[in-house]
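Suppose you are handed only these lines of text.
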Amino acid sequence: VTQVVLLGSAGRMGRALMQALSDAGDLTLKACVDRPGVASPPDGGAPWGHDLAEFVAPRDVVIEFSGPAAAAQAADLCAQRGAGLVSGTTGLEESQEAAFRVAARATPVVRAANFSLGVLALRRALAAVLEAVPAHWDVEIVERHHRAKQDAPSGTALELARLAARRRGYPESALRAGRSGLTGVRPQAEIGIHALRGGSWVGDHSIVLAGAGESIELRHVAQDRSAFAHGALAAARFVATAPPGFYTLEEVVSAAAR
Ligand code: NAD
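From them, the structure of the protein bound to nicotinamide-adenine-dinucleotide can be written out as follows.
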């Protein structure tokens, strides 16, 4: 049975993961970690603490949905201890993302901006539709999230936009988050991204492909955080036995299908 240490346990995703873990027979919640002063929710008896280093042993798996600084620190610690890491925090700076690549030399790491299987399918659908529509059709992404979300645009929207830009041969600078003022005619080589914030949306991504007189819209809606939690647990099972390396959710899913 794999021992899981949960970082960001008191958060929205942390609570969804605790719920999913309580239904998983092959994974045990070893400890819950969050910031000092954060009220601990009922955790089924696992110890609760503020310092990840107190709990992580070799071959444990750390699942983190916390914040950018905590995520990068977790990567360093997992590499030192030889613990697997499943990481979902978004909005990291480049230097913080680099910590995961370094950690992956020593330990297995799955990092994804979106752990839902539906978004994995959406990525494939986007690639297929981009092949099918004329190359001059405009691509825009609209995402909606709850009012407490810290980063914008969402990590998922950025990944979808980068995927579209790569397929079209546009540079990274083609991504354009929001528009205002006298923007002039929309350049061909642009992927617009628009972030709505409000209420309790869990995660909603629409990709609009617009031609003259017609358009196509691809949309994924996460109605419940269990959509991400189940993917994260699949990733935890994967890192429990995988050799060191940096893995995507796609690799986790195709390994599970084999
Ligand atoms: P949240 O604010 O509800 O929870 C984050 C928790 O992490 C909080 O309890 C906070 O106290 C804790 N935390 C932050 N810094 C910490 C530190 N240094 N040490 C210990 N605990 C710390 O946020 P959330 O909605 O659960 O989302 C968390 C992150 O996961 C965000 O970056 C979000 O964008 C991302 N997210 C990713 C996916 C995915 O599928 N990859 C899905 C949902 C959310």
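What can we learn from it? The chain is about 35% helix and 25% strand. The helical segments are 12-22, 68-81, 94-103, 117-132, 155-168, 226-239, 249-257.
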